[in-house]
Amino acid sequence: MRRVLGEGDWLADHSEDGQTFDQYKGAKWNRVDEKRKVLYIMPLQEMSKEFLEGCHRFCAAFYHGMDVKLNLKAGLSSMKVESRTNEYSKKIQYKASSILVHAKK
Fold this sequence. Notes:
Layout (H helix, E strand, L loop, with lengths): L9 H4 L7 H6 L11 E4 L7 H14 L4 E4 L12 E3 L6 E3 L1 H8 L2
Parallel strand pairs: 1-2
Antiparallel strand pairs: 3-4
């Protein structure tokens, strides 16, 4: 059974084609290879050492074959990141592409 989309749901506002499991499984971009084998965890705010270690262990187990690394160099307070306030939730949303610029440094 499909759930009813509510106000603020991505698909309620953006028309996208569906994807079958076989299409997902056959896609080239979801494969670990020499170019795409590292998963970086980059906390954007203060988090406990225990929490980050747990995230690292979980990601290493879940994303089998990936080299999982913690990137603790930057947080939101030290970055110039584009953001907006979501009109429905009133929460701040950060533009991923402006965060990724800092992740590559």
